[in-house]
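Lab channel / #folding
Pinned by the channel admin:
"Please post every new chain as: sequence first, then the structure tokens as a reply. Keep commentary short and put observations after the output so the thread stays searchable."

First post following the new format, from NK:
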Amino acid sequence: MVVTNTAEVSALVESDYDRATELKAFDESKAGVKGLVDSGVTKVPRIFIRPPEDLDNPTDPNKTQLSIPVIDFKGFDTDPIQRKEIIDKVGDASEACGFFQVINHGIPDSIMEEMKNGVRRFYEQDNEVKKRLYTRDITRSLVYNSNFDLYHSSAANWRDTFYCFMAPNPLMPEELPEACRDVLTEYSKQVMKLGFSLFELLSEALSLNPNHLNEMDCAEGLAVVCHYYPACPQPELTLGTSKHSDNDFFTVLLQDHIGGLQVLHNNQWVDVHPVPGALVVNIGDLLQLISNDKFKSVEHRVLANNEGPRVSVACFFSTSFQPSSKLYGPIKELLSEDNPPLYRETTVKDFVDYLATDGIDSPLRHFRL
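Reply from TO:
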């Protein structure tokens, strides 16, 4: 069945069914969305169907479409003139739309390709192997499940996920999935190195000492989140990832060729088209907080697709749920009588906990003065 209008979608969403029972059955299968696809489903189960307003793509023909900048990092660490131009571009993108792509970033194409292949190997291995890792206990060193907010969201996303923390306390090799163990370790090291450089450039874009953000320990934590978006029989009914902003300092995203990532800009969804060899960087809520709204953390989403599987690897620079007493607030060097602090100080854990326990909106509103 092909659904062609919002009335049909509403009828499907509002039909009488035992949602709690269906959620429980899906979760207890420990097979995820991939398990549904492997079983041969030809319709999207009701727990995934979204209301029409979630699926709308508002466009205004009178508005100029945003183009997500692609920034060439070649020479950022050897050529002062190039570095200044790159800093200006990074700063402009961070202020205007919170998203940019980087090429010539130093991570070899071969490692990025093997990282994507490793994610595919993990999800496409025997389901009995994966089931042993399936959990909703976020204190585990490695968490694999489908939809972290399965029992709280209004509709599930067409996506499976596993994640682990690779800094400040990286997992031992034997704790990592065998299917991607070696490349996950190597890729994490490469992204950490790139992250330190990005924090330098972002510091200079804020007219601060290059080491400022690194000395604030913004690069202390790294969570690696590996998503798998199976081909969807009715992509017009659901989403791969629902609208959200990231609650970290920034995110480095490796995506494959399929696409589907969109950024909300001026109430329009803008595609972030895959660029060969590029990594997507987006500003997170915590960086918006400490930059006192200079840099923007913007909402984004991923469309479901019928081409899949789509794979992506999102590296979040944050210590997340790990305990720390370190406080983060608007950077004092950025403040003045004309630019007073807009947020109160918080620990990273309290910031992330608020999102986990008190709602799906960005915690920024809660911490705003």
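NK: The radius of gyration is 20 Å.
TO: also worth noting, The first helix runs from residue 6 to 14.
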